[in-house]
Task: structure prediction
Amino acid sequence: MAFTKTTEQDSHYNHLEQQSIGTLLQQINAEDQTVPTAVAKVLPQLELVVEKVVQQLQSGGRLFYLGAGTSGRLGILDASECPPTFGVPHSLVVGLIAGGDSAIRKAVEFAEDDTQQGWKDLENHKINSKDIVIGIAASGTTPYVIAALEMCNSHQIPTACITCNAGSPLAKTAQFPIEVVVGPEFVTGSSRMKAGTAQKLILNMISTTAMIQLGRVKGNKMVDMQLSNHKLVNRGTQMLMNELQISETEAKTLLDTHQNVRAAIKAFKNT
Result:
């Protein structure tokens, strides 16, 4: 069957420039509501990916996200949130983007077409068979990502992918493909919209589920979060008050002493 990019097909809507603001917002919202349904259809594939991620991390490996443009930025966003949310090292989940860090803010011309740089970027992190690499590309055709996954496969490094087109070259390359088909974008070809939303939802699910499986959540609380601002200190204090049935003053003192909710709970229960 021929490979067709549904992400590039014409929008279901036309004459957008003639629509009122209210109508445009309603139509975009209507399209956005189709995304969770598309994600629900790939939960079995997503489960396989998360199982492999957990297996690799439990064995001392790392999780790498690799992408270009919006896809790369979403991977970096998810990776950057793991240390403050779950208290893990910055080296455990790594986001890489075609064109390097400067491409996070400003597009680097033709970076995604480089078939050598993806693997070089991974080699800079001393990638090995304990790790797992998830390639992210809405189109499923990004050379930077595909070539890097091919090299990973040849070095016995597990590979997965998130793409928004069925039957793509990327999905055929990855050992654990996720193909979340969201259909044409509201603005034709603008895959930062529904495709980007789908990728963000899936990345949320991968990292959150993996961290829960790794014991980084207690009950439903982020007990390993970094206390990097007043809001999080207050949240940690409230956690201790609720968990240990102690006063706010006691909780603040305990948290100030141990600088970590989990450590504070353990210390209190051992006294």
User: Anything to note?
Assistant: The beta strands are 63-67, 93-97, 132-136, 159-163, 176-179. Residues 165 and 181 are 5 Å apart (CA to CA). The chain has a mean pLDDT of 96. The two ends are 66 Å apart (CA to CA).
